[in-house]
C-alpha cells in the first residue's frame, strides 16, 4: 500500500502534538541531565527545533520519549561543553513558623526534594547520570538504553550500578552530616 501525504500526516503525530504531549518530559530530562535552570528554555527550544528538522526520519522503531531523550541528551552535552559560566542557584528559605499541613509547605518540600535530587545527579559522571535518569526516573529498559546510547548492555548495567552506588553514598553522607549537626546542636 502506498501512503499518501494526507494519510502519512494522520499516521505520524505532528510537531505541535509532540510538543504539547512531551514538553514537560523534555524539560525534566534536560534538568536531570545537569543543565542549569536558566539554560533549559533555550535547550528545550533546541530540542524541538531538531525534532522539527528530523521528524520525517522518525520511523517509530523506539518510543517517542526514547527518541526525545536521545535528542535531549545530545543537546545537554553540547550545552555543557559550551558553558562558560556556572550560575548560582538561589533557593527559598523556610519561614520560622510554618503550618506543615499547608500547600506552601508541601510545595517547598517538593522543591527541596527536587533540589536534593539535582545535587546528587550533579555528583555523577554524565554517562552514569544519563543511565540513572533513563532507568530510575523514566523507566526505560536497559536494552533500550543500550541502543539509545550506542553502548553494550553490560556497559549500561555497569554505569547503572556505579550511579546507584554514587546515589547511596551521597544519601549516606547527607544523613551522617545531619546526625553530626544534630549532635553538635544538642551539645551546646
Report a brief summary of the structure:
By secondary structure, this protein is an all-alpha fold. The protein contains 8 helices and no strands.
How would you describe this structure to a colleague?
- The chain is mainly alpha-helical.
- It is built from eight helices and no strands.
- Mean pLDDT is 79; it is low at 1-11, 85-90 and 93-98.
Blueprint of the fold:
Layout: H1 5-11, H2 15-32, H3 40-54, H4 64-82, H5 103-123, H6 126-137, H7 142-149, H8 153-187
Main sheet record = none
C-alpha Rg (nearest Å): 20 Å
End-to-end Cα distance, whole Å, is 81 Å
Give the count of helical stretches. 8
Tell me the total number of β-strands: 0
Give the percentage of residues in beta strands: under 5%
Helical content, roughly? Answer: over 70%
Question: Which regions contain 5 or more consecutive residues with pLDDT less than 50?
Answer: 1-11, 85-90, 93-98
Q: How does the overall form come out from the CA principal axes?
A: globular
Q: What is the SS-derived class?
A: mainly alpha
Question: What labels describe this entry?
Answer:
8 helices; 188 residues; single chain
